[in-house]
Amino acid sequence: xxxxxxxxxxxxxxxxxxxxxxTMVAMDSERSLLGQTLSTFxxxxxxxxxxxxxxxxxxxxxxxxxxxxxIYEVYGLIKENYLEEVDAQKLVDGAxxxxxxxxxxxxxxxxxxxxxxxxTESIHSSFQGIGAEVTMEGGKVxxxxxxxxxxxxxxxxxxxxxxxxxxGEPLEGLDLYQAVLKIRGPKGTxxxxxxxxxxxxxxxxxxxxxxEIPLETVYSETIQRNGKTFGKIEVTQFSxxxxxxxxxxxxxxxxxxxxxxxxxxxxxxxxxxxxVVEMGHLxxxxxxxxxxxxxxxxxxxxxxxTLTDKKPYPITVLIDKGSASASEILAGALKENGYKLVxxxxxxxxxxxxxxxxxxxxxxxxxIAKWLTPSGEWIHKTGIEPNVPIEQPKYYQAAPINxxxxxxxxxxxxxxxxxxxxxxxxxxxxxxxxxxxxxEKTVTAVKAFQKLNELPMTGEVDEKTATLLQELLVKxxxxxxxxxxxxxxxxxxxxxxxK
Length: 499
Description:
By secondary structure, this protein is of the alpha+beta class. The protein is built from 13 helices and 22 strands.
């Protein structure tokens, strides 16, 4: 098996990126049955396809070939008898999508030539959109994780949010790529998203201003604590140059003689398999196992680190619900090789995909294997448990304030009021309740906020009050002192140094 690299999580223009960790594994000696049967079908219906140099597909059995005749028969019936004229390519794409959808696997998808081209280009450049990775769960477009500093993150989108409409256009019935084309768009344009958030009864309205999404994926800083210096490297995604950038920052810290290393993988939706393996060679000690990959026949390939000695400093890793795929590979490798994880259980994606190009430059991405932790554990749909579980303060879960039906005021009730009460409490203006009823105490809390910030003391939350509430909440969440997971990880590092 040769690792090719590339992932659907690697930024498809939307920057809504699709499915966490599309790990691609190139197969030089074989190609899926799907590849040949689709090519045969296209040839039969008169759509010619070029034949670039590529692996040959496996042969369909006689019974399978007989069954595939149905596709051609139905195609002919539609072309000859349907009331209106039908586009041939649309029929073929529908047949392909039907086969892929029947797998009931959100990580197996079909990309038409346009989507495939955009995907390929986006791996190596910046792109415009909202900056989030999405997958399809239960027929709904679901956020895996917004990217660091992206419009999606700034607008308050969170892992597991489900987008049901864009600018008033419902996404129901669309496949993932069709939905993504609705969500993404030029820099400076607005995407008004209708969102279902787990735990909330009412739908949310989230307005995201699309922007240019850069491909910088590695951020570093130093942290001082109790006379010690810790290096912190945040990895937001495993993209093409992430391994190189990580090595550069790691070497800077090692040259400076840091006392410990903190790797922040929170909100990292995954990325390229070869890149996470590359990083594993820098961190996993004693030539330990980074991961195992098991194919459909149960055969396992074990990938070991080339690092001989353990680092002379402790390492702690931060994870959360938005840490998926390649993030989980790295977190699992470090945990099972003696390092501590801090935060929340990870997303839980343990499958490997291969992307295969068809004759007309469209692509089929499908699950062809699963990856396992060094000990052989499959974390799919369960995630990885941290050694030190830490939840963030409740206000970290607050949604953008929704004023679609007007100002929020006395005697109103609902999820929007409950969300407001969480924000007020988080900013130090306790409303006395958090059940979603706008009572006198909530009015008092709003007035106190308005007075302190030189706003008219109406006791109602209008656009100006809502905007300032959200700005101050974001500012508070960005303050490292309020990041309970980060503070816990630093404390763990401090204790490890003392050992």
